[in-house]
């Protein structure tokens, strides 16, 4: 039995499967990740991307923030890929309970997934910092300069920037889901970003699976490790599960 068949068997025999994904899940859609050698952090900007996406930079330099944000994080220009589609189908078949994602692109919902916990928020949701009025992604991505509310307030994406805490309710729900999982599949993440990466420490279930192109600090804890492109793995998995 090869690794894909082993994974398929684990999924079929599990009563509660949770998927925890990172930036690698969305790269096949065309969006760049942050930390890989081709990622955003290796591109040259006037300011380092990690600084642009920080709370203090957003407050001090909104013009530059929105230039980068529109240029690099506009998921409306892209589509969900095979991984998002296969995960949505697994949920529809009752083979996947919950998706926990570090991504902010909204692709899981676009692909049809219902039970999604977005640890870092979503570009699809935006709000006025003054009156809290809600705006969709189109409003932010289609305007020039700093997006303003009808009340005159500045519109901020509902995403967790560096120096900002995760939404406590979302984090607590994610911890509960990981604790209750019988099978936890981790995909497309280097497991280097905390507190999200720390979720793995709450897993008490039967099987821990990791799918990633590169090694992570948690590989030795896993029952199954697949070093490969997650889209390729999901495509093969879908064929085996048919």
Describe the fold and architecture.
This protein is α/β, with parallel strands linked by helices. It has a domain of 150 residues: TPP-binding domain (Rossmann fold, 3-Layer(aba) Sandwich), CATH 3.40.50.1220. Helix content is 33%, strand content 18%. The strands form two sheets. Strands 3-2-1-7-8-9 form a six-stranded parallel β-sheet, sandwiched between helices. Strands 5-4-6 form a three-stranded antiparallel β-sheet. A hairpin with a 5-residue loop joins strand 4 and strand 5. It is elongated and about 60 Å long. The mean pLDDT is 92.
CATH topology of the domain at 1-31 and 80-120 and 165-242: Rossmann fold
- What's the CATH class of the domain at 1-31 and 80-120 and 165-242, please? Alpha Beta
> Can you give the mean pLDDT?
92
* Number of helical segments with 4 or more residues: 9
Spatial extent as radius of gyration: 18 Å
Strands in their spatial order, largest beta sheet = 3-2-1-7-8-9
Features:
242 residues; alpha/beta; Rossmann fold; six-stranded parallel β-sheet; three-stranded antiparallel β-sheet; 9 helices; 33% helix
Précis, in short:
The protein has 242 residues and is of the alpha/beta class. It is built from 9 helices and 9 strands. Strands 3-2-1-7-8-9 form a 6-stranded parallel sheet, with helices on both faces. It has a 3-stranded antiparallel sheet with strand order 5-4-6.
């Amino acid at each position: 039995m090869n690794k894909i068949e082993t994974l398929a068997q684990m999924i079929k025999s599990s009563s509660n499967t949770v998927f925890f994904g990172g930036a690698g899940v969305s790269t096949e859609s065309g969006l760049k990740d942050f930390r890989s050698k081709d990622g955003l952090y290796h591109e040259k900007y006037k300011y380092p991307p990690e600084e642009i996406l920080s709370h203090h930079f957003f407050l001090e330099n909104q013009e530059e923030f929105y230039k980068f944000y529109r240029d690099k994080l506009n998921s409306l220009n892209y589509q969900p890929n095979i991984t998002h589609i296969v995960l949505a189908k697994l949920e529809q078949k009752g083979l996947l309970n919950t998706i926990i994602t570090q991504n902010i692109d909204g692709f899981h919902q676009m692909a049809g997934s219902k039970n999604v916990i977005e640890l870092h928020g979503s570009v699809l949701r935006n709000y006025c910092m003054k009156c809290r009025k809600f705006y969709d992604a189109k409003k932010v991505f289609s305007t020039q300069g700093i997006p303003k509310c009808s009340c005159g307030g500045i519109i901020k994406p509902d995403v967790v920037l560096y120096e900002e805490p995760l939404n406590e309710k979302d984090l607590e729900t994610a911890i509960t889901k990981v604790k209750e999982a019988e099978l936890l599949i981790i995909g497309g993440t280097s497991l280097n970003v905390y507190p999200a990466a720390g979720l793995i420490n709450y897993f008490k279930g039967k099987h821990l699976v990791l799918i990633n192109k590169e090694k992570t600090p948690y590989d030795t804890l896993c029952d199954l490790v697949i070093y490969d492109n997650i889209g390729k793995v999901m495509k093969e998995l879908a064929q085996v599960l048919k």
